[in-house]
Design goal:
single chain; 136 residues; alpha+beta; 6-stranded mixed sheet; 46% helix
Amino acid sequence: MTELSNHTMLSTIASLTEQDTSYTLARVVAEAADERKGDEILLLKVGDVSILADYFVIVTGYSKVQVRAIARSIEDTVEEKLNRRPLRSEGLSEGTWVVADYGDVIVHVMMPQEREYYSLEAFWGHAERFPFTTQS
């Protein structure tokens, strides 16, 4: 095996491992949102079409209180299970759209009006979609 092909193979393995880690984080986020009755949970694999992140996780909450509870549950669960905290979080005080940036995963917890108006699913329509379903 040549040095170049060996390097390519190692890069591919590192990329797959990073993607698996990102997907695991996205799943933990989705599960935490589901625990707080988040609705229409969607994982978008934006890493193939953008350098912003590997995944977006989009969740609907039906009141400001629920949006905040979902966002806090996500942060607590990710810290507990994966020992990670968001690099940045915005919108908790308003409670209509909370964004938590974990680097490889960006979380959007939104009220229905914000979700419909900003339509992230349509904007990122070329990204692969994974509707969240609980694994029993």
